[in-house]
Amino acid sequence: MPYANVNNHTLHYTQYPPTSTPPSPNTTPKTILFIHGLGSSQNFFLPLLPHLSTHHCILFDNYGAARSPPLLPTPSQNEPPHSIATISTDALSLLSHLSIPPSTPLIIVGHSMGCLVASHLASSATPSSQLNICALILLGPILPSPQLSTAFSQRITTAQTGGMEALANTIPSAATAKSSTPLTRAFIRELLMGQSVEGYVSNCRVIAGAEEGGFGYKGLEKGMGKGGKVLVVAGEEDGIASLEGCRGVVEQINGEGEGEGKGRMEVVSGCGHWHCVEKPEEVGRLVAAFIDGVD
Question: Which of 132, 87, 141, 117 is closest to 275 using CA atoms?
């Protein structure tokens, strides 16, 4: 398995090069970076890849998740606290490690917590960073709030007292649609059981501290320009990133002035919070169609 040593820790990643030619000579292959959410891994996105075979796809396990476990601190380490900003720095460092040219048209796909990372990458980009972010795709974006902070602080207590099994026994049913299949819920359970308690707790703290850290979905025009596009994909039955919350994300994205009209929302019926494994075909088609429309 390929690993990259970045920022004093190790990330597991996988690259999927294009396996087919674009249907039209006017279609430009894109580089797509995927950033997963809490209790997940890069494998969450795999059901989308058959729809994206003409593009270069880069997936990785966030620091502290799946096969990118947290390192035990040593007296010599002086790492900043784990946050949306540090995950963003890891993503940039991974692109550099893979020698992705800064001029490459880049689309970032985030899920849940990963949507905040995608947004931060776009809103904090400067001319000196030389990122060419042309679009974001946000699957079930969480909207920082005091209520969200409280909910994920409670998750920390559950993980520390009951281990990952306590969460794996409830989340696969509670966070999916009523019609979700046993196979889907088994896959989500396996994703959760593949986390260490230490890594899961660290990433819960990332979400709990997002509002205080000022992370959200404003100012995307700074890194994307006026032509950048954002697709928000909402699950009709998502109880974590609700329809109301996703509409709030779109409102933040569009705002006023230069960013106005940048974002739009699509709702996937019969879908909860785990979009790619609950409704892989529907989400795959939405993502592929959106990317085809990105210049």
Answer: 141
Strand order in the sheet with 3-6: 3-6, 9-16, 56-60, 31-35, 106-111, 133-139, 229-235, 263-268
DSSP 53: T
Across the chain, which distance is largest between two alpha carbons, in Å?
56
Judge contact between 175 and 240, C-beta under 8 A: yes
Q: What is the DSSP string of 252-276?
A: HHH-SGGGTT-EEEEEETT--S-HH
* C-alpha to C-alpha distance for 110 and 254, rounded to whole angstroms: 18
Q: Whole-angstrom Cα distance, residue 231 to residue 119?
A: 12
Residues in Cβ contact with 5 at an 8 Å cutoff, skipping those fewer than 6 apart: none
- Helix, coil or strand: residue 32: strand
Using 70 as the pLDDT threshold, list the residues of the chain that sit under it. Answer: 71-79, 125-130, 225, 256-261
**DSSP letter, residue 65:** B
CB-based contacts of 18: which residues, under 8 Å, 6+ apart?
29, 53, 54, 55, 56
Reduced to 3 states (helix: H, G, I; strand: E, B; else coil), residue 74 is: coil
Share of the chain above pLDDT 70, in %: 92
Q: What angle do CA 292, 49, 95 make, to 5 degrees?
A: 85
Asked whether 258 and 226 are in contact (CB, 8 A), the reply is: yes
Strand, coil or helix: what is 285? helix
